[in-house]
Amino acid sequence: MNIADKMKVILSKRKQLHLNDDYGIYKSWNEITEVLSENEEKAIRYLENCSKEDLYYISEVFEDIAEKLQSKKLIASLRRLDRKYPELEMTQDIDLAESYIETS
Questions:
Q1: Burial (Cβ within 10 Å: 0-12, 13-18, ≥19) of residue 94
Q2: What is d(CA 24, CA 21) in angstroms, rounded to the nearest whole number?
Q3: Digit-coded pLDDT (tens) for 49-89
Q4: Alpha-carbon span 33 to 20, nearest angstrom
Q5: What is the pTM of this model?
Q6: Which of 11, 58, 23, 14 lies closest to 37 in space, CA to CA?
Q7: Least C-beta-crowded within 10 Å: which of 7, 17, 67, 104?
Q8: How far is CA 32 from each of CA 48, 68, 73, 104, rounded to the nearest angstrom?
Q9: Which top-rank group of organisms is this from (predicted)?
């Protein structure tokens, strides 16, 4: 199964969860992070092509993905998406994600 197919399954489950389902939401976050941390290039390509609604849900775990990938290219891509969809108000999520990247 490719990344888009995996994410479709995970996100469809996530969208059905309510805020009081902490375990389900946490499980979805872990699954999203796992899939999008497997391959930097594929993750960036997926994020740049996914729907605005899907991006909104994925933004909940930007910092986890950034921590695993340690990718400045990912942050640059997220910044472009933030400019493309300012109504999603992802700037703070991206700033937090960027803080998880270790500087050497």
A1: buried
A2: 5
A3: 999 999 999 999 999 999 999 999 999 999 999 999 999 99
A4: 21
A5: 0.92
A6: 58
A7: 104
A8: 15, 12, 19, 27
A9: Bacteria
